[in-house]
Every structure is written in C-alpha cells, then in structure tokens.
Fold this sequence. Notes:
By secondary structure, the protein is mainly α. The protein has helices at 6-23, 28-36, 43-51, 59-71, 77-87, 91-104, 110-119, 123-136, 142-148, 154-166, 173-177, 185-195, 201-210, 216-232. The protein has a domain at 172-233: Leucine-rich Repeat Variant, CATH 1.25.10.10.
Amino acid sequence: xxxxxxxxxxxxxxxxxxxxxQLDSDSTRDRMIALASLRNVPAEDAVPLxxxxxxxxxxxxxxxxxxxxxxxxxxxxxxxxxxxxxxxKDYGIRADAAGALGYLxxxxxxxxxxRAFYEDTDWLVRFSAAVALGNLKDSRARDVxxxxxxxxxxxLQQAAIAAxxxxxxxxxxxxxxxxxxxEDWLVRxxxxxxxxxxxxxxxxxxxxxxxxxxxxxxxxxxxxSLQKLMTNG
Length: 233
C-alpha cells in the first residue's frame, strides 16, 4: 500500500486543529459546522472533539453531539450516553442519548433503556428507549415492548410494534395484530413492516388483509413483507 504524502498528513492534522478551534468559536453556526464536519473523521479522533460540546449552551449542538456519539463508537461513548440518559435534566437530550445507545448496539444498554422506558416521565424518552431496544435486537425486550402497546401515546405504540418486529418476537404476533384496524395508517404501516420479521401463518393472513389497505403506503409495506416471508419461508 502506497504511503500518503506528508503534505496530506499535515493537512489532515491541520484540519482537525481547525475543527477543534471552530468548536471553541463564539458563533453557534461555526460550532455546528465544525460538528457536522466530523462526519468523515475516524471515531478515535472525532470523539474527543465531540466531547468538547456535550455541555454546549445550544441545545441543538448538544443534541447533534449526543447523536454523533452513537455513530462514532469508542469505549468512551457507552458510559457517557448512559450517564446522560440517567442524569440529564433536558428530556430532549435524554431521548437523544437513548437513541444513540440503540445505534451503538451495545447489549449492556438493555437495562438502562428498560429503566428509562419504565421510569422516565417524558413520552419522548420512552419512545426513544423503545426504538433503541428494537435496535439492540435483544429478545429480552419482548415483555417491555408488549407493555408499550398499551400506551396512550400512538407514537409509543408505533415504536413498540416496530421494535417487536426488529427482535423477531413471533410469540407476540397476537398482541400486535389487534392494530390491524387502527385508525392511524402509520400504525398499520409499522405493523405491516413488523410482520415481515415475524414468520407465521397469522402474519401471512394479516398481511394479505393489509395488502388491500386503502392507504398505499400500508399496502406497499404489506406486499414487501409478504414477499420477504414467502422468499424466506
């Protein structure tokens, strides 16, 4: 493999220094651009810079930084995100931390996410925790997600249905099928998508019913899930 020219290495180093300097700028716009420019920077180099703005005065920048920790994975990210999920006062940042833990796909996040789902007082945090539990693809989340189906918030029902699909909870098919006639078409779409991961005769029967749904997005999702089940079956 050909070595990179020294000038390129120097420019890359300067670029990181420039980003670091921008993150110290008084301009919110500069800090935001700097954070966005870390997208293509290796995790080991990016995380120390992301940490500089985790307590930024701008909630938008803090939110971007927390999200970035879910994508730039180093050993530091997990404890930082769990701490934010459990101690942060702003519910939006707690929700971001839950979502980022899902992106990490670190199985250690299961218990903190379950606690957040049961104990957090804000629906957005509980929503993010449910989605993240699906991303972990841990079958232990089944009971938590089935309980979320009884939530009064429709978005929580959507998240739980999708997550049950992600963990392939075939034994929860009966619980999700009660949403086949939901008035909310997004709930029906999430159901159609989830059933594609839950192979059973009941899933196929429900998808054939949903394939005739009046909403084209639901019908299309049903067709795709049916194809998936037929192909894999």
